[in-house]
Amino acid sequence: MAVTDFFAGEIATELLKQLIFISAKAWKYKSIADRLIILIETIQPTIHEIQYSGVELPPHRQAQIGMLVSTLEKGNKLTEKVLSSRRWNMYRQFTLAKKMEKLEKTISDFMKNQILTHILADVHQLRANADVRFDKVERSLTGLEEQLGSMKIGGGGMIRDAMKMAEATMEIETSDDCEKFGVGLEIGKRKVKKMMFAAEGGGLFGISGMGGVGKTTLARDLERDGEVRCYFEDRILFLTVSQSPIVEELRTRIWGFLTGCEGVNHVPDWNLQYNGGVKTKKLVILDDVWTRKALDSLTSNLPSCTILVVSRSKLADPNATYDVEVLREDEAISLFCLCAFGQKTVPPGFDKDLVKKVAGECKGLPLALKVTGASLKDRHEVYWKGALLRLSKGEPADETHETRLLHHMEASLTDLDETTRECFLDLGAFPEDRKIPVDILINMWIEIHDLDEAVAFATLVDLSHKNLLTLGKDPRLGSTYASYYDVFVTQHDVLRDLALHLSNKGKVNRRERLLMPKREKELPNTWGKNCDEPYNAQIVSIHTWEMDDMDWSDFDMDFPKAEILMLNFSSDKYVLPPFLSKMPRLKVLVIINNGMSPAVLHDFSMFANLSKLRSLWLERVHVPELYNTTVPMKHLHKMSLILCKINNSFDQTGVDVSSIFPKLGDLTIDHCDDLVTLPSSICGMTSLNSLSITNCPRLSELPKNLSKLQALEILRLYACPELKALPDEICELPQLKYLDISQCVSLSCLPEDIGKLKTLEKIDMRECYISGGVRSAVSLECLRHVICDKDVAFIWEEVERAVPGLKIEAAEKCFSLDWLDE
């Protein structure tokens, strides 16, 4: 039976009730209502017989039932209007009476064509054919049972027992997923239905999410949903495409479904067109689609229909895609308990807090909850405690848990090219549940994978589209001259665990990545036991508390191939590891203090051995003072000081900063609250290409000798509220292309000679209340883009007329300190 048949019966019954009520209460419509009652009572038995036949009708018969359903629905709406119409509105009553006469004629014509009689005959024929087929199947099964009855599996178990065991193993996959997912599933269904129903002419829609988050469960529930089946008149095709699809076979099935020619074995012409007949809405659900190429092969040149693509990547338009989210805590615990105990709640006598902690390690991911719960089923509490300890360390609950979970999750990586896969594995180097600065990722990938910046960013976006990480939404992201140091990505813990698992295979000394899964008081013992042999790791990530000389004493390790070192700690003082001097190839050094106050670093003198260091990131530390004896960092290209105490580090008397950083091209100082005046010594770094002084609340003055930075192309000064003026010398920068002064609320004017910046292409001055225009700006012949608030856009009107192709954009506010909330 089709859902359409069911609704025909229900709607007919409801319409009959309404007509009887009209006949009794509304005398002006009584005669028409009585005639309609006779018609409905005549066809109702036939509809009921079709409704409860249990037979799936062919498409053309379903279309005919669909026509009847549509007519009856219109009749229902019409009777509601009749019952709600006021007696004094004679014109409306006359109009409604005419519409009821038209409804009577439509139903009468339907009956004259004896369509329901033909449908009922088909039902009887199909039922008879089905009985014959079931008899054959039953005889075949009986014979098969007799043949297999004595066969053994595994030295004694009957096949039936093996089947039962397999069913028990798959219990978590076959249970009622609707019941498990609760409110989250209903929200997803509602949002997807709203998208599909709003598009009258069909279109391409998507369900997206990481592996194991419940995409297919949502798609299956939509396929069964009564509203969906009614809207598409029961014309829904669900196909699983898979990673290695047989495209021709899938195309044939789609072609047969859309044209009604479902018996053909070959598609004669894939350029399908609608050729008349009863035009109906149809839904094609394509589950487990891996690539855009596969999707295009299956959907190109289709006639009008709705396509719902289910994929780990965002293959449909983002505005037409629903991202499946992880479960809320209460839903997660219910699902976990269902798989672990066979019920939605913790059974009496079992440690509820222990269950909550174990379920919490799954971070709301349905697959992890199901696999972990099933792996702990029928286990004692002592075993649960051991599982919790292993899970908290990023290890599997047991071997079965590891095999089943990783089998599903690792499939997310098989479609990645080698470089993108390696970039995904690099994410395991970052601490759990912390935002990852995009700038650090991009720098890592540039140095270790030899990527251009544009390619590295494209890789980041690709991983985001495949739901292997979550890219923070920022309107500046991806735009020309965008900065990345205050934009972040996050990653689900289960995906991080996958990266750690794949990276931590093999002997410690042989791994390409040496990573700590979580913060510990000291380094893993296995690291110290192998110090007599060099380590092959290219990436080393350490996550500890405070470390002193004694803590490092047992870890005299040699890293001849290390190119990236990440030191995450939580303390107000920190001794740098002695093996830092044994990393001759180190290119990227990241030092992040997750504590509450800036930390003092000790043994900074070891930097003398880092001759190949190209990128340095210091966060929440005291920047060491520079002296003439400081060994030059000849290859350092990029330095980022975030939430640091500058302590006049760059303004030491007699210190030649340019000789210490002879090739520094990119300097960022962000959220450094003790920076009042930008040291003039920085202007001696003539190699600087990009200078970013941002979110420094006390910065009030820039050096007068800023014009020395002859190679400077990018100058960012945003969110410095005490900065009152830009020095005139800024107009002497011959290579400047981008100027960002947004949120510098104390600035009241631009330099008079700003027109001298002949190479300037873009100015960002949102939330910057400059009131007076600058006449010389009409000479900015390369200027292409100005971003400002609406109330100051008028100062650029003359410039807009003078400079061809100039875009004046009144932008939305996009700056915040939300990223500081860890």
TrEMBL record:
Record-annotated RPW8 domain positions: 1-149
MF GO annotations: ADP binding; ATP binding
Entry annotated with the keyword Thylakoid: no
Family annotation (InterPro entries): Apaf_helical, LRR_dom_sf, LRR_Zer-1, NB-ARC, P-loop_NTPase, Powdery_mildew-R_dom, WH-like_DNA-bd_sf
Gene Ontology biological process terms in this record: defense response
Organism domain of life: Eukaryota
Organism: Raphanus sativus
UniProt name for this protein: Probable disease resistance protein At4g33300
